[in-house]
Write the structure tokens for this entry.
Amino acid sequence: MAPPTITGLRGTGQLSTVTLDWTPVPWATVVDHYAVYVASGSTWTLAGKTVYPRFVHRKLGFTAVTRSYRVVAVDAAGNSSAPSRTVAVANKTSVTVSGRPIARVGYYDGKGEFALTPNRSADYLATFPNDVDYTYGVSVRDRDWCYLQPGPSDKWAGSKNHRVRFRFNLAARPTTDLDLALWLIDSHASLAGSALLSVNGTQLERIAFANGATKGSTLNDSTLPGSPLKPSYIERPLPRRLFKVGQNFVDLYKDTGSWIAFDAFGIYARS
Ligand SMILES: [Ca+2]
């Protein structure tokens, strides 16, 4: 007898990923795994298999594309259920694609290209005794911006909170909100923690980081085939009322957990 048809399939699009979940089959039903199928045209291909009623489809790029998904339950004998209903889900378009850069450090390329890259975290305290204070247009990327932002869980960085400050000039007050694009090549595997985001001293929100693979403290290229790094992509609106003509600054204050490893950090206008 074939397993029951999956119900309750839902999807949510994020940057580069789509997350799907569905109603688990009743506990008495013997299901070996769920198979997730995707189509961006008319051909269905296997996106992946999972034993949990949840699946994250990754590496979908940074321009929104709508894809169709459906899920099949498979039992230990290899019998498949009928496909679930189809849901259409789009990944999100990054502000690095849709926006206009105002100020940034690093390239949005899945690699780390900063001071102490790729593995010199032991030199952090000597190199950045007052943490990173970077002025766009004046500071030098591979000297003044560290590849890692440590947190209080990092003994090598003094087991204390650490701030990154990014300064940039605006010739005029923005007429729309701006956007922060904070991309990471990796983070600590179990203690990625969080940081407080503020603009010109006004606290905006706490950003929780996805746990990574920990390898980003010694490797700096997440684009190599088979790379163990787990990149993540954080983009947030920055309200225009917080900005002024002249110098502005955005702070990331890491007061929980361990380090994050930067891919790039930038401020974008909506164009
Ligand atoms: Ca980069």
In short: The longest strand covers residues 246-256. The chain has two domains: 10-90, 95-270. The first helix runs from residue 95 to 98.
